[in-house]
Amino acid sequence: MSDGVQVPALEIEAVSHAFGARRALDGVSLTVPDGRFVALLGPNGAGKTTLFSLATRLYATREGRVRIFGHDLSRAPSAALAELGVVFQSRTLDLDLSVRQNLAYHGALHGMAGREVKARIAELLALVGLADRVDDKVRTLSGGQSRRVEIARALIHRPRLLLLDEATVGLDLPSRSAIVEIVRRLVEEEGLAVLWATHIFDEVRADDLIYVLDKGRIIAHGTAREVTGAHLRPADERAPDGPTAALEAAFRAMTAARAEDAA
Amino acid sequence: MSEASVAKRPAAPARHLGPAGYLVCMSGIVGRELLRFVQQKERFLSALVRPLVWLFIFAAGFRSTLGVSIIPPYETYVLYEVYVTPGLAVMIQLFNGMQSSLSMVYDREVGSMRVLLTSPFPRWYLLLSKLVAGVSVSLAQVYVFLAIARLWEVDIPPMGYLTALPAFILTGLMLGAIGLVISSLIRQLENFASVMNFVIFPMFFASSALYPLWRIRDASETLYIVCLLNPFTHAVELVRNALYGVFEPQAFAVVLGTTIVFFALAVVAYDPGRGIMGRRGGPKGEAA
Question: Taking 90 as the threshold, does the pLDDT of residue B89 lie above it?
Answer without folding.
Answer: yes
